[in-house]
Amino acid sequence: MDAPYQAGPDVHVLPTNLPLPGLGVLPINAYVLLAEEPVLIDTGIGPDVDDFVDALSSVVDPQALRWVWLTHDDADHTGAIRRVFELAPHARLVTHGFSALRMSSWWPVPFERVHAIRVGDRLPVGDRTLRAVAPPLYDNPMSTGLLDEATGSLFSVDSFGALLPEATEDAGEVPHEALAGGMRAWATADSPWAHLLDRRRFAQVLDGMHRLQPSRIFSSHLPAASGTSLERFLQVLESVPDAEPAVAPNHEEFAQMLAAMTAAQPQPRPVAAM
Ligand SMILES: [Fe+2]
Ligand SMILES: [Fe+2]
Fold first, then answer.
1. Which CATH number fits domain 5-244: 3.20.20.140, 3.10.180.10, 3.60.15.10, 3.40.1190.20?
2. Residue 15 CA, ligand 2 centroid: distance in Å
3. Helix, strand or coil, per DSSP, at residue 34
4. Model-level pTM greater than 0.85?
5. What is the Å distance from ligand 1's center to 72 Cα?
6. Is 73 exposed, middle or buried (0-12, 13-18, 19+ CB in 10 A)?
7. Which of 153, 232, 250, 268 has the most crowded CB, counting CB atoms within 10 A?
8. 10-residue mean pLDDT series, the chain (274 residues)
9. Quick one: which ligand is closest to 221's CA?
């Protein structure tokens, strides 16, 4: 877990930057939206649940949370969900109904606290309304993003994610070619079905994103980005169906990745001889 950072007057990022040797760094973000009724968007990757709770508590008292918007039930989004629901007794779980049902296979989901949503629904959170939107690319059919209708902040789930050369807090700092290549690499790996797309219909989906006119873009797998980046991002996504398909590491490559990840871990201090 990395240090939280503020990405706007009302949005705080709770990031983990996961190093993937040979590939780069993958950001994994949860967000706190400081609406009148505070909203936590996703709950980190785990397994360091205490770290996540510390990061969350540095931004908002979990007791004050009213909503936890879970974009989908993938493991990199549900890390601390059980603990968060223990610490946030006033929070309700906003998610796709089937995400809630599927999570009940590993967590006794408090269904009485679930507020099921689908694309197009609106959720009032005190001083503003959040609209559920469909991300253009996704790795889980329950994926549900949101647009803050008051500020134009778009939370785009896995869409617009990118493998980056290094961790940063501002997508605008990443050189264009590196960002475009990293976004394409992520998109082909995370949404391999994109190669099957009808280009004309996909263009309509991207046009729908364009019409949202977000002021800021908060992807689960990209540092915070300004709305002016949207056109560039949409151009990258448009190229994904014809990009080189992602290839999984074979056993030898995976073993090399693991060795590099282990070598990068901090070594335990030697124990003094008795
Ligand atoms: Fe996902
Ligand atoms: Fe994800």
1. 3.60.15.10
2. 12
3. coil
4. yes
5. 7
6. buried
7. 153
8. 96 96 95 98 94 98 98 98 98 98 98 98 98 98 98 98 97 96 98 98 98 98 97 98 96 93 69 44
9. 2
